[in-house]
User: Fold this.
Amino acid sequence: MADEERPRRDRPDQALPEHVLTEDLYQFERLLTPEEAEILLRVREFLRKDIAPNANAWWGRAAFPHEMIPRYAALDIAGLPYEECHPGGVSSLLTGFIALEMARVDPSMATFYGVHAGLAMGSVARCGSAEQRRRWLPAMGRMEQIGAFALTEPQGGSDVALGLHTTARRDGDHWIINGEKRWIGNATFADLIVVWARSEEDDAVLGFVVKKDNPGFKATRIENKMALRTVENADIVFTDCRVPEADRLQEAHGFRDTADVLRHTRSGVAWEAVGVMLAAYRIALDYTLERQQFGGPVARFQLIQDMLVRMLGDATSCLGMVVRLAQLEDAGIYHDHHSALAKAYCTTRMRETVGWGRELLAGNGILLDYSIGRFVADAEALYSYEGTREINTLIVGRAATGIGAFV
Assistant:
């Protein structure tokens, strides 16, 4: 074999320190403080040892590993952004890299964590009173109580702001909730479910924390999914479900407050999309260096290298976007169109990137044994949830033109 045809073993990533992700070509991870880098390394090691070896099996069986929850809790990361759990908090850059790292190994487990630590805890943190934040966030931060977030309905997805049909009626010091929710992650086993409903009195969108043992609450697992199969999504039915006024999120007064929660979690999905791209790139790179055809590794062919570079370019450009997004968030100059553009763009590039990865593995790409098929399937869910590409495009378009094009 000619020297120029040999796979190089002195690739630049091999000179990086152990704690730096080798796929991070521009080394954005170095922007973390040493203390933050130590936390991320702890997460990375947990995922490598406990999640990665089992991810395909869980996904194949559509079985959520409840036994892993205490191990997640031991990482002590769920409450990092919240003052009630970690006084002083941490940077959005660290929470973003944690989301990336989880999705790089298993998008299903990243979604489980994002629903709990982002959507559910974020709702309490942003829409709860001081007393409610003290009551719920510490236990949720320790993962002694798992959260879920119930907004989407069977007939209400992109238009849920106007098409929210779940209702709440005041009855003395309680509220009576009736309606249905769909695609609610963690809801089959969550202890606390943040439920968004429309007040029968004044049509305002209100938030409630519903306990799993509340009378009138029923969650049924959705079966036969082709993506995020490890996640337990549920259909929920509320039948005269009684919720104390004390469990109504006191600072949630309308859909604008709901949207504030989604603004922050939408950026988390963009980070997850980058993690999926980096996973697909690493799988494809390793495979093409090992796969022998025509007398050598297929990685030596120009067309293969072109596709690998396209994958790395997508991931790197999107990583730069979400890093800047985190900086804007920490600077307090973070708006809906910032997270909407990142979510729309990164998930679109993700879809493209995982498709190239599957193509590079040829027939083996459809086998779960090689993992890339799992990322291809899971990418479809990330592409759709937290606002479709079209809805996020309209948010950005409105900011760019000053004209709302929503129907």
